[in-house]
Every structure is written in structure tokens, then in C-alpha cells.
Amino acid sequence: MALDAVLITHLHSDHFFDLVPFTYALLHGPRSPRERPPLLHLPPGGLEVLRAMTRAWGPEDLIEGAFEIHEYDPDAGSEIGPLRVRFCEMPHFTQTFAVELADDAGRLTFGADCAPNPALVQFARDTDLLLVEATLSEPETGQRGHMSAREAGELAAEAEARRLVLTHYSDELDAARHLAHAREAFPGEVELAQMGAVYDLDRRG
Q1: 113, 126 in Cβ contact below 8 A?
Q2: Which of 8, 10, 91, 149 has its CB 3.0 to 4.6 Å from that of 182, i.e. a possible disulfide?
Q3: What whole-number distance in Å separates Cα of residue 88 and Cα of residue 120?
Q4: 124 and 184 both lie in a single domain
Q5: Which domain covers residue 20, as residue numbers?
Q6: Distance, CA of 200 to CA of 140 (rounded, Å)
Q7: pLDDT 10s digits, 170-180
Q8: Residues 124, 178: one domain?
Q9: 119: left (phi over 0), alpha (psi -120 to 50) or beta
């Protein structure tokens, strides 16, 4: 399946460094060149961050050669193919945006990296599928940018989401325990994000 678009929620390295090997694959891989480059949607200021990174070893426009780049306006929303896109700023250690992807069939809300917060509850209200980070094994105190699986379940329950997928968790955590904590707080369907997973949001089916 060809990838048409990539959307970056914030500019921490674990969320965008993979663009570098992806760029080389697009430019020099056996299936290149493509008829049209994939779209790359970046938060405000993202393009300059990518240029500063690639200047460290080569041309600053390296990634621009592989993608069609857009910096989105979080207040205006956007469109990706048939999908309507909305953004909501989240509490994290750098500027970060939750994302909603929707069409007439359903809604997917991705919380990005964030601490528990009422803004995400409101943003995700009644969503069909809520992807929420569950980085922590237990809640932390003080300044926070992440949440635990139980907190993710509580947030999904408060938002009255239909389904919950936990993401951004370490493979060093006890996956069964992580899942159980979320299920204690959220009465709906809960699962752990898996590589290559496909989610059907079509309520008409």
C-alpha cells in the first residue's frame, strides 16, 4: 500500500527523525521515483527544524526533495484527501497538537504526547476511535507531558469515546498489565497499538 501523507504532531525526535531514512528510500529506493511525492504536514516552524537537522551532514533541502511539504495552521484546520483535519494544542514539553481525522463515515482522534487534560476530553468528545499515549507505568507528579494507561482509560471514558487504542508505550512494560489498567477505567473496547494495524471507522457498515 502506497503512503500518501505524513502528519507530524510535534517536533520531538522520536516523532520525526524517521523522516530521514524515509527520505533516502523515496529518493533512492528500488520503487522510486514516484509519480507524486507524499504530502508532509508539519506544525508551524517545522520546515526550518528539518533544514537545521539535515544541514548537520548535507543539503538543508534534503527532505524537501522527497516530500510535498505544508506547514499547517492549527487554528484553521486542513484537509488530507477526503479527510477533514482539526488540531488542538496539548500540554507537553514542546508545542504539540492533538489531531482529528474525520469524514462522513467516522472520526479518529489522536492525542499526540500529552499529560491528562480537559482540552483533549472536549476535543475527543464522542469520537469513534481515540488513540491515546500511555507512556507511564504509573502517574507522575510535577510538570508532566505524558500519562499512564489508567489515565488514558479515564480520559477516554470522560470523553465517551467508542473505542480506545493505547499507543506510545514501551515494549519493556508489562503489556497485559498496561491493558488491564486501561480496561479498569474505560468500559468500551481497548487494545494496544500494533505495527501495521488497520482500523475500520465506518459506522455505516
Answers
A1: no
A2: 149
A3: 8
A4: yes
A5: 1-71
A6: 34
A7: 988 899 999 99
A8: yes
A9: alpha
Instruction: Yes or no: say if 42 and 72 are a contact pair by the CB < 8 Å rule.
Output: yes
Helix runs in the chain, H state only: 13-16, 19-28, 46-54, 118-123, 149-159, 175-185
pLDDT reading at 196 higher than 90: no
Question: Degrees (nearest 5) of the Cα angle 115, 201, 177?
Answer: 45
> Do both 27 and 116 map to the same domain?
no
Q: Which of 135, 126, 120, 121 is nearest to 188 (CA)?
A: 126
pTM of the model: 0.93
**Pairing, β 83-90 against β 78-80:** antiparallel
Residue 115, amino acid: A
Among 18, 43, 71, identify where a domain stops. 71
Same domain, 170 and 87: yes
Which of 19, 54, 71 marks a domain boundary?
Answer: 71
64 and 81 both lie in a single domain:
no
Q: Within 10 Å of residue 30's Cβ, how many Cβ atoms?
A: 5
